[in-house]
Specification:
Blueprint lengths: L2 H13 L9 H5 L19 E12 L7 E12 L5 E2 L9 E5 L3 E8 L7 E4 L20 E7 L5 E7 L5 H7 L3 E6 L11 E9 L14 H6 L5 E4 L6 E6 L1 E8 L6 E5 L5 E6 L2 E9 L2 E3 L4 E7 L8 E6 L7 E2 L11 H4 L13 E12 L27 E8 L2 E4 L14 E2 L3 E9 L13 E2 L2 E5 L5 E6 L5 H7 L11 E4 L4 E8 L4 E7 L2 H5 L3 E6 L1
Parallel strand pairs: 1-5, 4-9, 10-13, 12-21, 22-25, 24-32
Antiparallel strand pairs: 1-2, 3-4, 5-7, 6-8, 8-9, 10-11, 13-18, 14-17, 14-19, 15-16, 15-18, 19-21, 20-26, 22-23, 25-30, 27-29, 27-31, 28-30, 31-32
This protein binds CU-O-CU linkage and copper (II) ion (CU).
Length: 533
């Protein structure tokens, strides 16, 4: 496949989205009204770090033989110390932007794709114009300037494109990077033992070219699922490690694949951090569920290993609860039931994979004991929530051949009454998968899937995960893998699940989005605005 074809393919999502009538091609063209004053450089802003990021088609050598056409952010450090901008070795993915809390950052985003784009800083607490709302998309050749001060807790955040309707293909093409806010935890592994692991699934054709969704509605409904795992944008899934302790910053950067992370030697997963930074103390799990968009920081001790040992980080098999009841049998394309969740050439969500293999060297590395605790994490005061007796409910469900939130699809500027909140208030939001929003209960909601729920603009806390309506055969396979402590910006909402979260709206008024982080669901409109006034 030539470069042109790949670009066309990435646009295919729009042109064929008969599934989502609200999303017409001309819509994208008119996305830019009223927003021309955003994204301009302010000469009075004096950044500590200034970076130019140019998104463009490029090609890389991933395999023997033909190069692979991808999309890439080309980074340039204009101001700041070298460590603030790191590229992943031999990778088209990234870069990694490293900052300290309080630093001022300017990013000049230049779009050299053949289609509109914009960057979203996933997990950062920023004003509306800095957040990458799809209303701010820019055309090829244009620039959007981000200027902000980083006030998030130290932690592992990330960035990726967010143009409405084509986020999936742009991320899939290779546009994603980490945004790390550094901490001063000298008790944790550092340097070469603090390692990012961005997990993504891809499918390649015989010419080494990426295959996205072919013109297949059902696969779009499920989301893209590839048959091969890339780590940090590379096909070679192994690295050598010293005998010592490691900190892994794991991002699930996949479009729709969920991972059930486990060590091959059955050691427990030691989780030290979530989306919004370090936990108050390490937590141990037999395995860890990681949905698209989520991050987990994992601590691991290789110091007692013999050199030559190989330990893998795997994804174990599980039941994702995907069911396409209403279309069973021959309804849509035949063989749907058995094949549901399968991509054109992929493997269903919940299939086992070896993700990455660590080969232990004879060399001794840095060896620090697992700290008993980290800095305390503030808790949102639920008693002060303005709606503590009647949380807002957000029903993620399927209806009229679409994935919807409370019966609604995305509209660029629209905010419903039930999406308006007040600045400086705390609220409880309840997210429900497959509830009564469409006038159908669990049983009537014949198409069900897990949805990774993401809210822009803030970090929230999970109060309660009600699993009483989650099918037993699903829960049994995943139930021990959740970490609900600490700060989150994305969480997995399984079929039948109800999750209550506490959110605090502060500092910024404006429109922010919340959506399913299954990128194909998001592109199809499983996304809405909320507005802080
Ligand atoms: Cu990482 Cu709105 O997304
Ligand atoms: Cu979804």
């Amino acid at each position: 496949m030539q470069r042109k074809e790949f670009i066309k393919l990435s646009g295919l999502g729009i042109l064929t989205s008969a599934l989502s009538p609200a999303l017409a091609f001309c819509n994208l063209k008119s996305q830019k009204r009223d927003v021309h004053n955003a994204g301009k450089m302010n000469p009075d802003f004096n950044p500590d770090i200034e970076i130019r990021l140019t998104s463009a088609p490029t090609d890389v050598q991933l395999f023997r033989g033909a190069n692979t056409q991808v999309f890439s952010y080309h980074p340039e450090l204009l101001k700041g110390d070298d460590p603030s901008l790191q590229t992943l070795q031999n990778s088209y993915l990234g870069p990694i932007i490293k900052v300290k809390q309080g630093q001022k950052v300017r990013v000049i985003f230049k779009n050299q794709l053949q289609e509109v784009s914009i960057i979203h800083w996933h997990g950062l607490h920023l004003p509306q114009e800095m957040d990458g709302h799809p209303m701010y998309v820019i055309d090829k050749g244009e620039e959007y300037v981000y200027e902000f001060q980083v006030n998030n807790r130290p932690g592992t955040y990330w960035f990726h494109p967010h143009p409405h309707g084509i986020t999936g293909p742009q991320v899939y093409g290779g546009l994603a990077g980490l945004f790390i806010v550094e901490d001063n935890e000298s008790s944790l592994p550092s340097g070469g033992q603090d390692i990012p692991l961005v997990i993504q699934d891809r499918t390649f054709n015989a010419d080494n070219q990426l295959v996205y969704l072919q013109n297949n509605r059902m696969v779009r409904m499920t989301g893209f699922l590839g048959n091969q795992i890339l780590i940090n944008g590379q096909a070679n899934n192994s690295m050598e490690v010293a005998k010592g302790t490691y900190r892994f910053r794991v991002l699930n950067g996949s479009n729709s694949r969920i991972y059930k992370l486990a060590w091959s030697d059955e050691e427990e997963i030691t989780v030290i951090g979530t989306d919004g930074g370090l936990l108050p103390k390490p937590i141990h799990r037999p395995y860890l569920m990681l949905a698209p968009g989520e991050r987990a920081e994992i601590w691991r001790d290789f110091s007692q290993q013999n050199s030559g040992n190989e330990i893998s980080l795997n994804s174990l098999s599980f039941n994702s609860g995907t069911s396409m009841g209403m279309m069973g049998g021959r309804g849509m394309g035949g063989g749907m039931m058995g094949g549901m969740g399968q991509s054109a050439s992929g493997t269903e969500n919940g299939a086992p994979f070896t993700l990455f293999t660590f080969e232990v060297l004879a060399r001794e590395g840095e060896n620090k004991p697992l700290p008993e605790s980290f800095s305390p994490v503030d808790t949102i005061e639920v008693a002060q929530a303005v709606n503590r007796n009647a949380p807002r409910q957000f029903n993620f469900h399927f209806q009229r051949m679409q994935w919807l939130i409370n019966g609604q699809t995305f509209e660029m500027y629209e905010v419903a009454d039930w999406e308006k909140v007040k600045l400086n208030t705390t609220e409880i939001w309840e997210f429900i998968n497959g509830g009564s929003g469409g006038g159908m209960g669990m049983m009537g909601n014949m198409m069900s899937m897990p949805h990774p729920v993401h809210v822009h603009g803030l970090q929230f806390q999970i109060l309660e995960r009600d699993v009483s309506d989650v099918p037993q055969n699903v829960w049994q396979t995943v139930g021990d893998g959740f970490v609900d402590e600490g700060w989150q910006d994305t969480f997995l909402l399984l079929p039948g699940m109800k999750v209550k979260v506490a959110l605090r709206f502060k500092d910024h008024t404006g429109k922010f989005i919340y959506h399913c982080h299954n990128l194909e669901h998001e592109d199809m409109g499983m996304m809405r605005n909320y507005e802080v006034t």
